[in-house]
Structures are given as C-alpha cells and as structure tokens.
Design a protein that fits this description.
The structure holds two protein chains of two kinds. By secondary structure, chain A is an alpha/beta fold. Chain A contains 14 helices and 15 strands. Chain A has two domains: about 190 residues, Thiamin diphosphate (ThDP)-binding fold, Pyr/PP domains (Rossmann fold, 3-Layer(aba) Sandwich), CATH 3.40.50; about 110 residues, Rossmann fold. The longest helix of chain A has 18 residues. Chain A is globular and about 70 Å long. Chain A starts with 10 loop residues before the first strand and ends with a helix. Helices cover about 40% and strands about 20% of the residues of chain B. Chain B is built from six helices and six strands, in the order E-H-E-E-E-H-E-E-H-H-H-H. The chains are: A alpha/beta, B alpha/beta.
Chain lengths: ~375, ~190
Amino acid sequence: MHADPKGVLTGTHYLDGDHAAAEGACAAGCRFLAGYPITPSTEVAERCALRFPMIGGTFIQMEDELASIAAILGASWGGLKTFTVTSGPGFSLMMENIGLGIMMECPCVIINVQRGGPSTGLPTLPAQADMMQARWGSHGDYEIIALSPNSPQECFDLTIEAVNLSEQYRLPVMLMMDECIGHMTEKVVIPLAEEIDIVPRRWTREKPDTYLPYKPCDDLVPEIAPLGYGYRFHTTGLTHDQRGYPVLNAETQEECVGRLMDKVNKNAENIYHLEKHNLDDADVILISYGISSRVAIPAVGKAREDGIKVGELRLITVWPFPENLIRELAGNIKAFVMPEINYGQVVLEVERCVGGKCKTRLVGHAGGWVHDPESIYQAIKEVAQ
Amino acid sequence: MSHTDVVISGFGGQGVIMAGIVLGKTISIFSDGFATMTQNFGPEARGGACTAQVVVDSDNPIRYPYVQHPKILIAMSQEGYEKHEPNLASDGLLLYEEELVEPHPGKRDQIKALGIPAARIAEEFGNPMVLNMVMIGFLAGTSNLIDIEPAKKAIAGCVPSHFIELNHRAFDKGYEYGRNKLEALKAAGSEV
C-alpha cells in the first residue's frame, strides 16, 4: 500500500530532525497526535499542530504526558494511526501506559527526543541516556522495538518505518532521537506518495461471531477488529486469553506474555535495520547509534590512517538487539568500541553478547554535548594494541 | 569553496539560528552544495548565548556535523566573539557587528577581521530584526561562500511573505557594505 498523497509534502526541504519527524508521521498516515510540549521535542508537535488540520488529522495538547499516551492508545483502538512525542521527563510519565499499549497490543509510535537527565536535567542539551528506559521502563516482561536516526532525513524515513513496524507487529514502537539530531538542519528529500510503502492496519476478515481478538496469526500477531461493525470484544491490561478476558493463572501468563516476547524475538531478523561498513576484515568494530555515529567519523578516519582495521556497525534498530551478529563478530575481532552519551547502557548488551570473547570498550559521558572525536580515537587505538 | 566551517554567534533574539538556516538553505537547496546546521542555545527564549554552526561542502554530503576550528566566524555579541574567536582558523575570516563587538586588536594578526554596523543599518530600515540578514549579506559581499540569487531565494522561503522585500533590502545593504569595505581595503593596499 502506498502513502496517502494528502499527507506527503513531496519535495526538497531544509528541515531539522524534529520537523522531519513530523513530516514522516504525516506521510506514514498518522492522523492523531496527543502530546504535551517539552524541549527539545516541541517542534514536532508544533509542526503537526499546523499540518494536521490541513490533512484531516487532529492534534490535541493534553494536560500532561500521562493523558497524552492514554489518548493515543484510545485513538489507536478507534482506528487511527497515531503517535506522541516527548523528552525524558515526559517519557518517564508515559511508562505505565506504554505497558498497557504493549499488553493490549496497540499500534502507536512514541518519539523521544532525548535530553540530559535524570529528572528535568538539561532541557536544551543532548543525551542518549533513555535507551535502557525504552527497553525496560515499564514493569513486567516485554520486548520492544526502538529505532535511532542519525540525520533529519532518517528522522523522516524512520518515523515512517516506526509507524509501519507498529502496525505490522501491533505494539508501541519507540523512535529514540536525541537533541542533536532533533535540532540539526539538513536537506530532507520527501519522495512521491507512490514511492512510500505503508503497512495498513491489520483488520480481521473473521466474522464477528467467530472473531477472537487475541488469536495470533502465523507471525504471532493477532488481527484487529474495526469498531462499530458489530464486533464485541474485551481488552484489558490484565493477563488475558485469546478472547481478551482476564484469566489470572500461570498457564495463561505463559501464553500471553510469551507471545508478546516471541512476536518481536522470532521476527527479529525481519525487524533489524543495521548499517555495516568494513566488518569482514576488521580488528576493531565501532558500534554506535544516533548522533554518536556521526561524531565518531573523524575518529574512525584517523585510526584507519594509523593502519588500524576499523569496521563500523550502526544500530538503526537498537531494540531488538542484534545478538547473533555481535556473538559472531566477537569471535573474529580484538575489540568493540562503543561511544554513547551516557555512562554505559547499550554497551551492556554488547558485553553480554560478547561473553568475554573480545574486549568491549565504552566511551561514555554524562551528556550535555557530544563526544570529542579524539576520545573515541584514543579508545580505538588502545584496544587495537 | 570545497569544505568551509562557519560559526554564527550572538544573543537569543538576534536571529542567529535563522541566519544559519538561510545560509544552509542557500547552499544545500539553492546551490549544488551540502550544508548541515547545528545549534546551541540555553533555555531562555531571549538574551541568552546562542550559536549556529554550519558545515558547508561544495561536493560531498556532510558526515561529521560539528565545527572545531571555523574558517568563518560571524560574531553578533561580545560574548560570542570571546567564546569562539580563539577557535577561529589561523587564516580565518571574522565578520563582526562593530557596535556590539569590540575585537582585541593585534591579538591574531593573520585573521582577516571586518566590521559592520549591522544593528544600526537594521534600525535604519525601521526593523532591528533584519540585523541577521544584514550580516548574511555582509558574508556574501566579503567571501565567496554564497551567491546573491540563491541567498535571496533562501530568504524568501524563510520569512513571512510581507517581510521578504525588507529582508532582501537588508541583505543587499549588507552585501554592498561588504563589497565597499573590500574595495576600500584594496585601495589602501591591503591584501583582500
């Protein structure tokens, strides 16, 4: 299915990442945004407040982020493609209902333009320190999908991908931007609507009397019934059976939560979106995501000038984590080097998968600015010896 | 031009970010080059320090988006000058608002420093907000970074339609001031 031309601002634009993400949401078919303004994400909502009325969408500025996430879950059940946008403090407030979205299997997207934390932290300055919160922030066991763009063009492209993934796998998908990417302005090319692939809502073809709202298809994802067409069913945050009714025992928990995990893990090979350069003969592999992937470029160049064989692996999909690839690479190299604007989050997953087969070096800091490329270069040089 | 790093620095409210957007748009949309703009500002809407960095390349997409040693510094506040001038490349170009910035004479002789009373010029247009476009015009007049026509197209896409003409005139005035300044320096025997 192609994008609805009404939402696609085809052309060449000079946009920052926030505005590009807003255009990505319009192009992806999102027609409902409930949000509460917070730096450095406000421009996304601001642009949608302007654009949505022109394309038949609705923007509501809610009283807070708790209400924002609740409203988009409701709109998702109502049949719309929907998203919300926030930064760290608002992301924290959304955690409870992110869990509800996962349990009820609501397609929706949450954009987090990360800033320095904890608490209100650094409103206008960058961090990448909400990565584990995206993975584990709500209580209970679940798997999540999180993407991380490194340019305004990717903010456009990956917002569409996030919306598509949320429809395909029926879960909240996180777009983990950072302040640098959100406020970086570059050329963004928006293609023709017919060049943009859109995943439609997975409406059921079952009759109302035989429809089971949580009966999975072969890919472990259940189909959705359109409201107002005679389908009567129940949905809940409680552990439920295929009818959607609470069944509070260990067997149902295993079936219900096990499937929420499996629908991401068993489809992971179809979800991964990675950028790989020079991995085959590398001695050291730089793993990065978001702005840190671009900050590392001079460091990689300088190390290569020194004769060090450096490969690059960029996690465009951060969650699910490409475990098998890391395990495989770890057996062939001396070390992974990972710059992150935090004190070590995604690097913990790298270490877990490496399992001692090679060195793992974090280049981290507390946020407020990007790395000095020299610090990344020094780390590469040290581990290459 | 190949690769040129530019820093524009001033106060919030002076149009620093808008100047960066006009510069970036001129190059990446209306010329054949590439330009990435990043920005740095505090939580205050007005009055705080504000910086736009524009990395420009005529041939290749920008991968590393930050500026360490700018080739061109546009200083619209003393604080911005003090902060960024030490990083200016040794053969760099300093363009400054001469009533808001007092450069330290003789500090770094090899840097070309050119001043313009841009705030006064903007006030003469009846709108101090066009200070930033005077500075962008001055940049066009004193360097080969951007051409007039693409810059004017970029300006037209960045300001409300009833302000386009005013901004174009502000740009022209800055450009003309820059050309005259270079001519005067040439006439005085300076290398420009």
